[in-house]
Specification:
68% of the residues lie in helices and 0% in strands. It is an all-alpha fold and 92 residues long. Helix 1 runs antiparallel to helix 2, helix 1 packs parallel to helix 3 and helix 2 packs antiparallel against helix 3. InterPro entries: YqfX-like.
Length: 92
């Protein structure tokens, strides 16, 4: 008894693309969330996920680029806040 369809050559590449699409969306969400909290952690994670998803050839290229931009913005916000408050971290 077979529960799934047999794998063909065209379906073999789809799971990798689906993973890349998920990483693109995750980088966007983490980059957006990083603007509010934990930007020292979420910014680099968003950058790495965006770069890996672009490298794997995601179909959601726009989301990956937005995740990359938001990850960089997270680190920029942190750097500006650290300069203004003269500390190693910032709080509201």
């Amino acid at each position: 008894m077979q529960l799934t369809a047999p794998v063909t050559t065209s379906d073999a590449t789809r799971p990798a693309a689906r993973d890349a699409d998920g990483m693109a969306v995750a980088s966007f969400i983490l980059g957006l969330l990083g603007l509010l909290v934990l930007n020292i952690f979420l910014g680099p994670v968003a950058i790495v996920l965006a770069v890996v998803s672009l490298w794997r050839g995601t179909a959601r290229r726009g989301r990956a680029l937005l995740g990359l931009a938001l990850g960089v913005a997270d680190l920029a916000v942190l750097a500006i806040a650290m300069q203004v408050s003269h500390t190693l971290s910032w709080s509201l």
